């Protein structure tokens, strides 16, 4: 999957961030994971492995494109992980609204301009004590460029402010690759 992403110049979280996501899911005992933006299944594989080792459960793979979903089915099937994955094709935040239940972990990697609007939906669906992991919080350093007023950069800054200033979240940005926000929702 990594070689395929490199050939196609398709963005994935990469092995270091993948392993960190796996480790966080294992430490949290995650058995229900919802991915908002799953690509062709690279991050899904890391979460599915963790869920399997946590005793089983479900990882929700969500993409906007049927071809990506089909490719993910092939990859995850080859890894023996497809039995615990539910595949959704559609807008990720709306899909999260529709799917029943609460989640131990939510992974956010959608269009960056949509990050702030996704947060209340995530908070509503994440169980107390659950984890939120969001990708691209460093945005290739653009968040530090005061002259960058693009809607994506402004949205990432706002999302980071919303999470880090809300006492319901304990959060840190891990400066690995393009930056992962890791946040724990407070217990009730």
Give the total of domains.
1
Q: Mean pLDDT, rounded to whole units?
A: 93
CATH superfamily: Vaccinia Virus protein VP39
Overall SS class: alpha/beta
Strand order of the largest sheet: 3-2-1-4-5-7-6
In what range is the share of β-strand residues? 15-25%
Instruction: Provide the succession of SSEs.
Output: HHEHEHEHEHEHEE
Q: Low-confidence parts, pLDDT < 50 over ≥5 residues?
A: none
* CATH third-tier fold name: Rossmann fold
CATH architecture annotation: 3-Layer(aba) Sandwich
Distance between the termini: 39 Å
Percent range of helical residues: 40-55%
Number of strand segments: 7
Summed up:
The chain is α/β, with parallel strands linked by helices. It has one domain (2-185): 3-Layer(aba) Sandwich (Rossmann fold).
Report on the architecture of this protein.
With 188 residues, the chain is an alpha/beta fold. It has one domain (2-185): Rossmann fold (3-Layer(aba) Sandwich), CATH 3.40.50. Helices cover 42% and strands 23% of the residues. It has a seven-stranded mixed β-sheet with strand order 3-2-1-4-5-7-6, sandwiched between helices. α2 (14-27) runs parallel beside α3 (42-53). It starts with a helix and ends with a strand.
């Amino acid at each position: 999957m990594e070689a395929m992403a490199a050939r196609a110049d398709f963005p994935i979280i990469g092995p270091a961030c993948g392993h960190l996501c796996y480790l966080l899911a294992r430490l949290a005992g995650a058995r229900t994971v919802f991915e908002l933006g799953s690509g062709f299944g690279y991050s899904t594989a890391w979460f599915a492995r963790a869920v399997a080792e946590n005793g089983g459960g479900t990882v929700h793979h969500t993409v906007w494109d049927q071809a990506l979903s089909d490719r993910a089915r092939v990859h995850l099937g080859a890894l023996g992980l497809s039995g615990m994955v539910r595949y959704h094709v559609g807008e990720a935040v709306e899909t999260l609204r529709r799917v029943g239940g609460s989640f131990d972990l939510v992974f956010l990697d959608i269009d960056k301009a949509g990050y702030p609007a996704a947060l209340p939906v995530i908070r509503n669906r994440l169980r107390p004590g659950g984890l939120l992991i969001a990708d691209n919080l460093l945005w290739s350093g653009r968040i530090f460029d005061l002259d960058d007023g693009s809607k994506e950069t402004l949205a990432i800054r706002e999302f980071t402010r919303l999470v880090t200033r809300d006492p319901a979240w304990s959060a840190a940005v891990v400066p690995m690759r393009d930056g992962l926000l890791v946040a724990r929702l407070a217990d009730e």
